Amino acid sequence: MRIRLLSLFVFLFAFMSCDTDDILPAVTLSIPDSEFNENYVDGILLSVSLNVTADDNIDLPISFGGSATLDEDYIVSSTSINISEGSNSGSVIINLLDDFFSEGNETIDIDIASSVSFIFLNSPLSLNIIDDDFDTDGDGIVDVNDSCPEIAGPIEGSGCPDSDGDGIYDNEDQCPDEPGNAENNGCPVVDADGDGVLDGFDDCPNEPGPEQYNGCPSPKIVINEVLYDPPNDLPGDANGDGTREPQEDEFIEFYNYGGDLDISGWSVHDNSEERHIFPEGTVIPAGGVLVLFGGGTPTGAFGGSIVQVASQGVLNMNNSGDFVTIYDINEISVLTFDVEPLSNNPNESYTRNPDITGEFEQHAEIPESSGTLFSPGTRIDGTNFN
């Protein structure tokens, strides 16, 4: 009994004589989460904290291991964490590096080099990196870099095969199931409509058309009559508003000999500048006519034609020589009219004789005109086109 009491006394004496300075400070290592996607763009905060305030600067070396490779799969702002004097925490940043290799999930094992000066409560830590690179077709090219992610192909074809064996990989082959050549974008050398534009480049392979329209038919529209020198006095009132004004009474007559034609956004230019833009919704019906006056308030039937006035206020066709060009919405020249060969101040219009298909002649000199000086919106003889 005496021996037991003596032992207890010795233990209590030893315990009560311990100073708090003899207890080692505790270090806690932490990250905000244990799992991050490879494409995570923000830095991951790796922190350490002490359960006491540091009496001096403390530098804790950090080791990084695991299946992920430092400087290939991730980088760190430092391989040690500093806790400043008077503080109880410190941190470094881990940044993940997003690559384009299918390598599976990886781990970063994080630990603090052991030290007799501290108690480490929760190290090491493990951080899981979730791979975001998938290779659906198993051709060794991850989907984000694979032009054909669901069909296996070589790297030379950006992951696409050459299905028709013509030496042109499917991602660049406009006819991937028919052998062709590179000059025809991988399509057979065929010009089905015989317009000189190979089918691989022809937007209308079954309808002949010029190259400037990618093989599609040109708009079927002509300038049928032009008045650039209105007659003097009231006989020159071509727009029918009761006043002869040389700029306002100028006009250009267009005839559409094809299907309905939308000319919204087309423009009319003279030698110096743009004079008119056809407004949205300007559609000339098949066999229809549009008359564009320089200005004024056109008054009359004009053969039931569409009537507009120049958006810039004038057409300004120069009597001594001018060149009028009509551009489509893609700024391709569709129509032209050269004033100079006809410029002799005729005081009447020039019109095609016969209408639509003939050469330009002075209006009043054509027998069918019965001496009239112009006929905006109608045929030479004043009858409607339709």
In words, what does this structure look like?
By secondary structure, the protein is mostly beta strands. It folds into 2 domains: 129 residues, Immunoglobulin-like (Sandwich); 149 residues, Sandwich (Immunoglobulin-like), CATH 2.60.40.1260. Helices cover 4% and strands 27% of the residues. It has a 6-stranded mixed sheet, with no helix packed on it. A 5-stranded mixed sheet has the order 5-7-3-1-9, with no helix packed on it. A 5-stranded mixed sheet has the order 2-10-8-4-6, with no helix packed on it. Strand 21 and strand 22 form a beta hairpin. The longest helix is centred in the first third of the chain and has 15 residues. The N terminus is likely disordered.
* Helix fraction by DSSP (H/I, runs of at least 4): under 10%
Query: What is the assigned CATH homologous superfamily of the largest domain?
Result: Lamin Tail domain
CATH class categorisation of the largest domain: Mainly Beta
In N-to-C order, the SSE pattern is HEEEEEEEEEEEEEEEEEEEEEE
